[in-house]
Amino acid sequence: MLSKSKPQDIQALDNNRNIIRSKTGGWRVGEGVYSHGYSMLEELVGEKSYFQIMILNATGKLVERRLADWVEAIYGCLSWPDPRIWCNQIGALAGEAKTTAVAGTLAGTLAADSKMYGMYTLLAGMDFIQSAYKKSLDKTTVAEIVDQNIKENKGRLKIMGYVRPIAKGDERIEVMERVTKKLGFDIGPHLKLAYEIEQIINSRLQENMNINGYISAFLSDQGFTKDEVYQLLSTWVMSGVTACYLETLHKPNDSFLPLRCDDIEYKGADKRSID
Amino acid sequence: MSEYTREKAQSRNHAFSKKTTTRIWKETPCDDNPYITESVLCHGYDLYELMNKCSFSDMFYLLFRGELPKPNDSKLLETLMIALINPGPRHPATRAAMNAGVGKTMPVHILPIAMSVMGGDYLGGGEIEPAMHFLRKQQKNDPITVANTLLNDYNNGDSIAPGFGKRFGGIDVMSQHIIEQLLLLEGSKPILEWAEQFAKALQSNGIGWLTTGVAAAVFCDLGFQPKSGGVLFQLLSAPGLAAHGLELGYERITAMPYISDEDYVIEK
After folding, report:
1. Across-strand partners of B21?
2. Which of A274, B99, B166, B191 reaches 20 to 30 Å from A44, CA-CA?
3. How far apart are CA A53 and CA A76, in angstroms?
């Protein structure tokens, strides 16, 4: 059988065999290491903060120090050592199973790539605030933006960045508001809109913005796209997972929430035989 | 900073379940220790009986579908499992496994590393769920008409529909041969048959089945849910990924190519 490929397509593939063309950078042995046009060992390491370098690698943008410090603070907001949180519990279970620290930490981090919490939700959070902002420029009122969302979701408010599972209200916003102020950032148009939306939601449903909403609005004001935000926060929960891993690693086997057989309720088929 | 005073966070006091429930597995404890399992039921069948009377693929089907497969379904699944057991040493996930192996990564990490890559949207588990939705939705329509409609909008990219497209610029011949083998099996395979007509209508354009489409079509015919599809695909490919990774683990670091500085071009 023939694949019906065109010779020029095969030629295009051949052009990339055994060669890497990188727009990002790389290591030239004996010469230097480059990231997005910067010499890492001369211009970045020791000169810029780790978070500046991390954001550069994640987005291609070398941001000012205070913005990197702001992102660092946000990482602190999701580094809670509480093993009841889903991703952290995976870290704790990895410790219980005596995996390596890297395996436990990465397993838990991967879990936060979730549609309910953690990193993946930032894509929806960014989508919402950026499209809401565009609508507001087109003279759609804040109330109309909220009403539209309720209508689209069959009578329920479903805006990523508002309302929060487990708890009502988000204590991290106040902390980040202090960080924002301390670092000298103004409230930009996305964040202003986010607050206005919060006011409407609060007055109608007594619900609030959550940390996703705050980050999405603030980082939109800093000119980031949704993909850039997702990329620069891709290891957001990592440190909390490590902490929970360590908690159980050093405890005796089978001591983290041990389950009796009947602690799992079976609701399947009754006992039967193979015909 | 915000225009009203923020209240303290309060627990929502959700009514969480007291126990986790499962329809899959029942563990009965031994008489003197409620933590130690004496026997197990899988969807009602005793594990010891399953060990003696079932094939691995039957057990696999039971685990995910809740019933033992009929003989034709059992054969279809087992044949697919053999077909997809190894994506081959050029697939990105296998290459990831091999990089881990040759880099002396701990062997127990090889599979999680390769599985993550195998979850991608291109040639990976991420493509299965959309492919299953596509097939389940379109199978009510004439496959030739669907193919022609999609061809009208096709912009010569890799994928024309989830699970169908070009590989390396042409038809993935191997996937086509696998389909031909699967179609020889006895039993009803309506989605596989529909999709084969669909793929045939694409072929003159150098487009055809991808392995993800093959898996998606069979999973549909076996009654698996689209949401399960990506994970099942990862599972089916796991042995090949692990084998390649482990193989390189015994080799020197020089056993795989390392692009020279001359062939590493940093573009401005």
Report:
1. A265
2. B99
3. 17
Per-residue pLDDT of A176-201, as tens digits, reads 999 999 999 999 999 999 999 999 99
In this prediction, residue B4 carries a pLDDT of 60
CB within 8 A of A31, min separation 6: which ones? none
Whether A223 has its CB under 8 Å from any CB of chain B: the answer is no
Q: For B67, phi and psi rounded to 5 degrees?
A: -135, 155
Whether ipTM exceeds 0.90: no
Question: How many whole angstroms separate alpha carbon B238 and alpha carbon B111?
Answer: 7
A39 at interface of B, judged by CB pairs closer than 8 A: no
Q: Which residues pair with B71 in a beta bridge?
A: none
Residues of B within 8 A of A169 (CB-CB) are 6-10
In chain B, the residue whose alpha carbon lies closest to the alpha carbon of A21 is: B265
Q: Which of A200, A202, A213, A190 is nearest to A136 (CA)?
A: A190
Average pLDDT value for chain A: 95
CA separation for the pair A254, A98 (Å, rounded): 11
Nearest to A228 by CA among A71, A38, A26: A71
Q: Which residue of B has its CA nearest to A185?
A: B1
pLDDT tens digits, one per residue of A86-133: 999 999 999 999 999 999 999 999 999 999 999 999 999 999 999 999
Read off the pLDDT of each residue in A150-174 and give the average, rounded to a whole number.
90
Q: What is the chain A residue with the closest CA to B9?
A: A169
Cβ neighbours of residue A213 under 8 Å, at least 6 residues apart? Answer: A125, A129, A159, A160, A161, A162, A194, A198
CB of A252 within 8 Å of a chain B CB? The answer is no
pTM recorded for the entire structure: 0.92
- Residues of chain A with C-beta less than 8 angstroms from the C-beta of B63: none
Single-letter residue type at A156:
R
- Per-residue pLDDT, averaged over B48-73, amounts to 97
| Chain A residues 231-250 with a CB less than 8 Å from chain B | none
Give yes or no for residue B3 having a pLDDT over 80: no
Cβ contacts of B22 on chain A, cutoff 8 Å? 264-268
Query: What is the pLDDT, as a whole number, of residue B2?
Result: 52
